[in-house]
Model the fold of this input.
Amino acid sequence: PGASAPTQHYQGWFDWCYKSPQGVVGKWEVFVPINSQSGFLDRYVRDYLGKPTLSVIIVTPTNFNGCWYGQMYDYLLGGWTMPMSSCKRPTSYSPGGLGGERGWTAWESWYVSGNPNCPLLPDIRALNIQFANPNTGAFQPVTDTPSDVSATGSVSYCWINNGYGPYTLVFPGGSLGLPPNSWQAVTSVAPPPLTVTITGQGAVRSLGTCLWTATVSNGAPPYVFSWYVSNNSVNNNSPNPNELIYHNAGSSFTIGVQVSNAATATGYGSKNVTISASAPICLY
Done:
């Protein structure tokens, strides 16, 4: 698969240190199918703190010989196994891909990162995250929170820190009852509703043509607007989708607008409009 391909139902290792001669950053090294037929669940998955969990290590020798190893704990064997090994790296850590500031991705779900539809999924978590100190060989806990610990980037439709939603990432996870140095991706919640307000005259003259504007908050564009007058769908008659230009038929009416965005969040706003001979003349 290419750099942007989904892992689907696989455990994968993506090498961000790799940079091809053509300048392509990142490369999938290996996939391990996650299903009962492959024996993956029996071998690598056990319940831990109430959820199915697997243990993963990505490591290189202290004397760095150009090789990286991806390991998972095999409960049937009672020890670590090595589904992934990659010995194609240069003899230094940099520059690598993206200036060398990234390493390996051991799991991802590109579908919920790059897809505007945000399905409700069981929460995903990473527990007891530690780094091996190359000077001592000992594992040490995470002591700081990276600035990019939560999902960022224009393709991350489903992450609320990107202005969309509904997903959030909690780090550290102590507030959720998780061990230290843990995070949890909260993916089991529906997107919050959009807040929609319609501005414009609440009283207009009979047979007048006037303009109303919808303002949206609690979400992020792009938005899709569907306009209604007294529950009947109408063309907004404006080059701006958040505006309605409407010529009334001489009786009171209600304007409504349904709004949605890429995160599948929705909202509805309405405004009652009466007919009055003393109403201001619409400037439109």
